[in-house]
């Protein structure tokens, strides 16, 4: 028989079909309905992996999401998962599985020797051992030795779908409590989402022998789901194989849905963000292990997991079973395993056990040993026996009495799966009676029900679920009287100094917790970081409470007094692909294209990203480098005429009877006195007085202004307008419209700009009398609506022509044709940077930093003359703002003309011991073809005084020294005569 | 003299290969205007009604052509596929003389996409967490929300036909997003 542990009947698998798969190169068979874990177990595979740190052999501990050991490398065709949890992967034909963290083979792992040196590898050993010469020396080797799988060498190119949804009631968990809640919610007309991490509904009804409303529990669950799906006129969504991974604010939960058949090119997981009016957490409970020496050997399994493999998949994991328990529910698992034909003996750590339990066990023929515990197990790759002794044994030398067995089932009591509850902000409290943390106080519109709430009996779960769904009338009825549930807080064999496993995935033992306690890492947060308890990919689902219990014993506290660490999303791992969704590659963030982008490409533009805008940096000719192109373009603007696409420059219309008052309160510069048809260069300050943006403000009419924020600041300025209007001055009658992208704006700049403009067909009077520098006019250009402004960022006579965006490309072509006689030359942002630096025109964010005030830039007129209270004003008069050692804008003339000063280079002074202190830094530095030497701007402490002293300054950059003179921050045409030339 | 030729944003978009369950179209309406005013001001409401034949709506759309799309408590997007932007803006301004209101022509500033078919809502759901449930976002409903991280105006024309306005400079990005998302339903 190919599946020696599979029973001839039972479980929810299709025995008529066979699926084949491989594990560690060997071929096995399973059935549809199997998980990878159940199929391995059916085939008698015990050894599934090696542990993280000590490389100890490991087998399956659990049957569900909490499994810490069975992390496998999975390959299916081109699909690769480097760390698949065997318990959660449905078996499909052709799976190729291998163990992780084992080399050369699972049985002969060369690093298994680490286990022999365990005494030298306690918690935190690497902090103590690998500090000399430095951690990085050892890091590579240590990371190689530890771990749970190897990442793929190739990236996953598939798309992952994300979706949003809303509902009145979201029920997490389709066990008895969750189904009862969903049924009740749907019955009273709510829109309901019911999500279940397993592929089948029912939760523990799938393997416990219990009845609901007179039906077998699993059949009731299946019928209930069918009923929910068939309800007319009610909006019910049932998602199986869907994990609630995270619980955020506003009752928003992230769910990951496993897709059986995604579209071609799409990944197997879908991420949902569901926002619910009310959330019912019916997430069930997780069984805990009990720590004892060698309790991590393959063949030591959680008792409920053993019963689950039996009930759900028809796999009997052992024939001779010793079941260790500290609670009443262990007996239920023992009875299930016994009835399936296993020989079972119960070891109960409690000296006094309820007579009824012992009697029921005796009736079934199960022996019970009260007051006993396991002192150890025999066998390396698979359990062959146990040693039993008194539960209060504290002597490490005590050997106990040996018993042969092939499976050790352990029930350490149940912990509500309160992870999502905790993520929602809810507070847990320790319940001494049930020996577990239970939800105590909700923080959102949420209620925990059933086992997730500590209601460990079926009848109570059904009642709680029904009530939470708003159910009227009677709840579904559990057909048999539930036994009561009691558990003793027995976490480990009370022997100190011996490794007893708590956190299987991170190899944290009782010895590590004892060490942490000895070294005063007694806070739960320190315990976690020092020992790494609960920090593995399973997030300590089986380990945390045991670890807290042991720490409590070491420090004389209850687990409640020790407290829990914060549960953080996700509950179970999800693929990074699902988190990213389509937000990757070209879809990660928008790239804004200029309306003339195609024309720029035709002109040979070398485009780059400037903020969100993708713009021409320059237009290299064939055989020309970008640096050469920039020099050529700069000279063309200085000597003839250039053409530039400035469409990204902001255009915000401010309209209303109070527009003048509003912009005057907002901007640093006086704007009420601005005459219609005129422009003013202005600074806009943040509330703390720092320069936020600069730009030209135009007055179009007495009640209408047009703001031109810089390209990257337009959205921020728009938000600032809205904020100040809404929050501070709602009484001012004013409206804002962002029309930036409705207009294409082309700048014609240079000494021959006027000649080119003279050829343009327009009804706008372009004479200097009608349209002087810093003026604008509306009209028509070549038959379309247009606006022409005299404004310059190059220092040359310039015209900015704006036309509706769709006409921009035609205007570009037209101007190139018109200007051919004057060798009109397209120029890009990089050329503009050189041009404006020659003129000392600043770029906010480059020549300023987050603390630059207007006076630091030498713009002090409004500071002295504008008396009304504008944004940021009060911060310009603080002691900080008046310090005389503030960084101020200056120009730098390099002593050597070899190359531009490095951008970002520090200006330094030398102190005692030749120690360098930074006085400031170079902000903009370029080779000026106009002047034939480098030019630079800098922000420097006491900059104005340095300029007046014509000081010689030392620059330091990556070990290189340069010298420069402090000069006025304007290198070309300081009087500005060329603006009108 | 012939005027400068026009080239709309759609000319730069690659053709969409979409499944039959969802159809994507890039549209260039002849007028798109930002309109601001006080919806409690009778003069404003009357002026808008006179020119556009609809009252300024709240939380939804009004009219058909021109269509009024609610943006904010005091702002609307006016869309027409028959009137010219400049002409419509001038007419509106004329009708609102003496009223505190603002009209700006943004015809070329906004890209418009139509998403139609049985999977239209699922496609939009990939880029937005807005509640697209047909029960709550049926014909006539509109919203300003985020799609693919960008501010968009979204509205429903018919149960399976929705439209989305977004900034024109991001038209290629939105088109990339929409066409990629559509491949999930191939």
Low-confidence stretches of chain B: none
Category by helix and strand content of chain A: alpha+beta
- What gap, in angstroms, lies between the N and C termini of chain A? 99 Å
Q: Estimate percent helicity of chain B.
A: 10-25%
Strand content of chain A: 25-35%
Shape of chain A: elongated
**Class computed from helices, strands and strand pairing of chain B:** alpha+beta
Of all chain pairs, the largest interface belongs to: A-B, 58 and 59 residues
Widest beta sheet: strand line-up of chain B: 1-7-10-9-8
Q: Count of helical segments of chain B?
A: 4
The value of Rg of chain B in angstroms is: 17 Å
Q: What level of helicity do the residues of chain A show?
A: 10-25%
Strand elements of chain B, count: 10
Average of the residue pLDDT scores of chain B: 95
Oligomer: heterodimer
Number of helices of chain A: 25
Largest sheet of chain A: 7 strands, mixed
Radius of gyration of chain A: 37 Å
Features:
heterodimer; A: 981 residues; alpha+beta; seven-stranded mixed β-sheet; 22% helix; elongated; B: 186 residues; five-stranded antiparallel β-sheet; 4 helices; 10 strands; globular
Tell me about this structure.
- The complex is a heterodimer of chains A (981) and B (186).
- Helix content of chain A is 22%, strand content 28%.
- With 981 residues, chain A is an alpha+beta fold.
- In chain A, strands 8, 9, 12, 13, 14, 15 and 28 form a seven-stranded mixed β-sheet that branches. In chain A, strands 41-42-43-40-34-44 form a six-stranded mixed β-sheet.
- The model of chain A has no long low-confidence stretch (mean pLDDT 95).
- Helices cover 22% and strands 32% of the residues of chain B.
- With 186 residues, chain B is an alpha+beta fold.
- In chain B, a hairpin with a 2-residue loop joins β9 and β10.
- In chain B, the strands form two sheets. Chain B has a five-stranded antiparallel β-sheet. A five-stranded antiparallel β-sheet of chain B has the order 3-4-5-2-6, with helices on one face.
């Amino acid at each position: 028989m190919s599946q020696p542990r599979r029973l001839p009947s039972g479980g929810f698998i299709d025995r008529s079909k066979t699926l084949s798969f491989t594990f560690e190169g060997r071929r096995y068979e399973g059935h549809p309905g199997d998980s990878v874990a159940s199929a391995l177990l059916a085939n008698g595979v015990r050894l599934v992996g090696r542990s993280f740190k000590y490389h100890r052999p490991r087998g399956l501990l659990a049957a569900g999401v909490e499994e810490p050991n069975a992390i496998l490398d999975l390959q299916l065709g081109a699909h690769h998962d480097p760390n698949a949890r065997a318990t959660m992967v449905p078996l499909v034909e052709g799976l190729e599985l291998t163990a992780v963290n084992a080399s050369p083979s699972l049985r002969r792992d060369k690093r298994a020797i680490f286990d022999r040196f365990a005494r030298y590898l306690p918690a935190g050993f690497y902090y103590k051992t690998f500090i000399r010469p430095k951690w990085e020396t050892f890091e590579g080797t240590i990371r190689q030795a530890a771990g749970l799988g190897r990442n793929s060498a190739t990236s996953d190119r598939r798309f992952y779908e994300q979706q949003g949804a809303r509902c009145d009631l979201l029920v997490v968990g389709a066990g008895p409590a969750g189904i009862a809640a969903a049924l009740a919610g749907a019955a009273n007309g709510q829109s309901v989402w019911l999500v279940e991490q397993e592929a089948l509904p029912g939760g523990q009804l799938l393997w416990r022998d219990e009845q609901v409303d007179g039906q077998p529990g699993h059949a009731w669950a299946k019928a209930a789901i069918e009923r929910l799906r068939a309800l007319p006129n009610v909006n019910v969504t049932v998602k199986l194989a869907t994990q609630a991974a995270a619980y955020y604010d506003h009752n928003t939960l992230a769910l990951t849905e496993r897709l059986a058949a995604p579209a071609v090119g799409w990944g197997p997981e879908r991420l949902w963000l569901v926002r619910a009016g009310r959330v019912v957490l019916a997430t069930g409970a997780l069984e805990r292990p009990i720590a004892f020496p060698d309790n991590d050997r393959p063949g030591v399994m959680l008792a409920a997991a053993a019963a689950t493999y039996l009930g759900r998949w028809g796999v009997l994991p052992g024939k001779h079973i010793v079941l260790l328990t500290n609670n009443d529910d262990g007996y239920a698992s023992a009875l299930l395993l016994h009835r399936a034909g296993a020989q079972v003996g119960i070891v109960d750590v409690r000296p006094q056990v309820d007579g009824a339990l012992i009697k029921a066990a005796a009736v079934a023929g199960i022996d019970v040993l009260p007051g006993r515990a396991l002192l150890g197990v025999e066998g390396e790759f698979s359990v062959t026996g146990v040693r039993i002794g008194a539960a209060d044994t504290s002597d490490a030398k005590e050997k106990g009495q040996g018993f042969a067995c092939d499976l050790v089932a352990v029930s350490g009591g149940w912990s509500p799966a309160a992870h999502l509850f905790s993520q929602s902000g809810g507070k847990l409290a320790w319940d001494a009676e049930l020996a577990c943390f239970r939800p105590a106080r909700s923080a959102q519109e949420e209620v925990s029900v059933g086992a997730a709430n500590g209601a460990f009996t079926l009848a109570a779960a059904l009642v709680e679920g029904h009530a939470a769904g708003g159910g009227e009338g009677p709840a579904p009825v559990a057909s048999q009287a539930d036994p009561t549930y009691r558990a003793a807080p027995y976490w480990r064999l009370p022997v100190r100094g011996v490794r007893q496993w708590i956190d299987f995935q991170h190899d944290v033992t009782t010895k590590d917790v004892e060490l942490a306690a000895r070294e005063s890492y007694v806070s739960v947060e320190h315990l976690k970081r020092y020992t790494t308890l609960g920090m593995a990919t399973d997030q300590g689902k089986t380990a945390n409470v045991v670890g807290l219990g042991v720490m409590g014993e070491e420090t004389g506290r209850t687990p409640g007094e020790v407290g829990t660490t914060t549960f953080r999303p996700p509950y179970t791992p999800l693929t990074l692909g699902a988190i990213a969704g389509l937000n990757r590659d070209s879809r990660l963030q928008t790239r804004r294209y200029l309306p003339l982008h195609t024309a720029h490409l035709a002109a040979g533009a070398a485009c780059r990203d400037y903020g969100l805008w993708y713009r021409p940096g320059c237009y290299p000719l064939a055989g020309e480098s970008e640096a050469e192109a920039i020099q050529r373009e700069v000279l063309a603007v200085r000597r003839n005429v250039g053409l530039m696409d400035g469409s990204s420059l902001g255009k915000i219309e401010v309209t209303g009877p109070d527009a003048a008052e509003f912009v005057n309160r907002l901007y640093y510069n006086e704007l009420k006195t601005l005459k219609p048809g005129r422009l003013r260069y202005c600074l806009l300050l943040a509330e703390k007085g720092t320069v936020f943006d600069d730009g030209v403000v135009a007055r179009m009419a007495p009640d209408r202004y047009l703001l031109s924020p810089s390209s990257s600041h337009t959205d921020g300025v728009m938000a600032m307008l809205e904020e100040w209007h809404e929050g501070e001055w709602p009484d001012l009658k004013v409206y804002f419209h962002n029309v930036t992208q409705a207009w294409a704006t082309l700048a014609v700049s240079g000494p021959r700009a006027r000649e080119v403009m003279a050829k343009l067909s327009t009804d706008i009077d372009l004479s200097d009398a009608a349209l002087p520098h810093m003026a604008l006019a509306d009209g028509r250009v070549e038959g379309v609506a247009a606006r022409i402004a005299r404004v310059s960022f190059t220092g040359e006579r310039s015209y900015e022509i704006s036309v509706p965006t769709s006409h921009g490309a035609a205007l570009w072509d037209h101007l190139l044709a018109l200007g051919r006689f004057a060798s009109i030359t397209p120029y890009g942002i990089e050329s503009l940077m050189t041009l404006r630096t020659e003129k000392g025109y600043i770029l906010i964010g480059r020549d300023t930093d987050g603390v630059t005030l207007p006076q630091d830039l030498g713009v002090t007129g409004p500071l002295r003359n504008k008396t009304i209270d504008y944004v940021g004003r009060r911060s310009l008069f603080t002691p900080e703002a008046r310090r005389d050692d503030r960084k101020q804008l200056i120009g730098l003339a390099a002593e050597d003309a070899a190359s531009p000063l490095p951008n970002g280079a520090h200006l330094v002074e030398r102190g005692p011991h030749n120690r360098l202190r930074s006085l400031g830094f170079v902000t903009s530095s370029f080779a000026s073809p106009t002047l034939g030497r480098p030019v630079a701007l800098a922000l420097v402490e006491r900059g104005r005084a340095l300029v007046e002293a014509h000081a010689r300054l030392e620059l330091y950059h990556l070990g290189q020294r340069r010298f420069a003179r402090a000069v006025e921050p304007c290198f070309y045409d300081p009087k500005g005569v060329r603006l009108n030339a | 003299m012939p005027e400068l030729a026009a080239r709309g944003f759609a000319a730069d978009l690659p053709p969409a290969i979409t499944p039959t369950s969802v159809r994507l179209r890039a549209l260039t309406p002849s007028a798109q205007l930002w309109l601001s005013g006080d919806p409690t001001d009778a003069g404003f409401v009357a002026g808008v009604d006179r020119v556009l034949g609809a009252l300024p709506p709240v939380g939804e759309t009004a009219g058909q052509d021109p269509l009024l799309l609610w943006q904010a408590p005091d702002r609307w997007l006016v869309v027409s596929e028959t009137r010219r932007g400049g002409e419509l803006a001038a007419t509106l301004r004329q009708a609102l003389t003496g009223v505190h209101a603002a009209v700006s022509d943004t015809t070329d500033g906004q890209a418009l996409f139509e998403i139609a078919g049985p999977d239209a809502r699922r496609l939009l759901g990939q880029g937005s967490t807005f509640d697209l449930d047909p029960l709550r976002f049926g014909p006539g409903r509109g919203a300003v929300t985020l799609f693919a991280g960008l501010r968009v105006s979204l509205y429903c024309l018919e149960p399976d036909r929705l439209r989305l306005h977004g900034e024109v400079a991001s038209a290629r990005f939105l088109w990339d997003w929409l066409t990629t998302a559509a491949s999930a339903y191939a």
